[in-house]
Backbone:
């Protein structure tokens, strides 16, 4: 369970304490950085050709294509359709490879997830955590009623709906697999919906991943996702400086590293901060007051103001 759900009553106190602690931790470097209200340099943005207009217009991102009937992580056609009708225009999709190397919408391939989501149990090895083949995966309905999607299916949807942006939550950290995944994404889009390729928003999980994916295609925007970083070694100032140096304007983090000072620092540097995954309006309001700009969500109404 998200820690904020367990500690909302102590949230304000934690924010005040966090302010004092982080002032000491950041020291002179932080104060110097915060003294400037300048946005990310025009030179960095022009060099990369990034466009973050989607963020200015969308504070909510539909997590795993959005919740449906109280269910999350379906990455299904019906979830997309339902949440598009609700007003979402930015969607996050989990992507993984089948055993025959097809990119599909799947959060993981663990045996429990396959059993609970697809109703699939390997008769030879009930604890098999390996990917399914495309034919087996596509032959099941998610939770018995929702239609699974390949990335090729999603590319065709984006070709039809020209106002949809897609955040890519890839499940691979190995450089070779990251290159393979984003090369396949690029090639599928060029084949199925070339006009949609600039509405793809890769998430990167490390500084090294930036160069890796930008060598494949000059993506028009990138999200720097901090929740995969080792929190004991996380330096918000250093990571924010890296984002700014590359022209990245969106950072995603979990509530575990969330506090007023970090967000005020990011805001002063022209960076939008998103937090995942928030499904409670009260928590969204608290985080917004703390400086958070937007949320990945399964349930929140994208048209409702939680400020």
Residues:
């Amino acid at each position: 369970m998200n820690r904020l759900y367990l500690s909302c009553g102590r949230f304000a106190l934690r924010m005040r304490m966090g302010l004092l602690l982080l002032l000491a931790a950041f020291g002179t470097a932080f104060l110097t950085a915060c003294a400037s209200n300048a946005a990310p340099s025009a030179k960095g943005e022009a060099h990369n050709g990034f466009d973050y207009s989607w963020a200015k217009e969308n504070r909510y991102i539909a997590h795993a294509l959005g919740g449906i009937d109280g269910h999350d992580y379906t990455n299904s056609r019906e979830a997309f359709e339902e949440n598009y009708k609700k007003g979402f225009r930015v969607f996050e999709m989990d992507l993984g490879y089948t055993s025959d190397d097809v990119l599909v919408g799947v959060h993981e391939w663990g045996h429990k997830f396959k059993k609970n989501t697809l109703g699939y149990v390997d008769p030879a090895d009930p604890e098999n955590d390996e990917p399914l083949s495309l034919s087996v995966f596509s032959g099941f309905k998610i939770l018995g009623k929702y239609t699974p999607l390949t990335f090729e299916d999603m590319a065709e949807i984006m070709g039809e709906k020209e106002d949809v942006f897609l955040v890519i939550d890839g499940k691979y950290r190995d450089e070779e697999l990251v290159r393979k995944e984003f090369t396949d994404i690029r090639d599928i889009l060029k084949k199925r919906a070339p006009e949609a390729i600039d509405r793809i928003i890769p998430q990167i999980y490390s500084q090294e991943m930036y160069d890796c994916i930008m060598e494949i295609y000059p993506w028009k925007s990138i999200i720097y996702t901090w929740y995969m970083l080792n929190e004991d070694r996380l330096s918000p100032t250093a990571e924010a400086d890296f984002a700014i140096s590359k022209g990245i304007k969106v950072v995603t983090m979990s509530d575990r590293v969330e506090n007023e000072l970090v967000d005020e620092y990011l805001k002063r540097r022209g960076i939008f901060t998103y937090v995942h995954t928030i499904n409670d309006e009260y928590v969204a309001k608290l985080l917004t007051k703390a400086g958070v700009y937007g949320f990945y969500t399964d349930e929140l109404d994208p048209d409702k103001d939680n400020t």
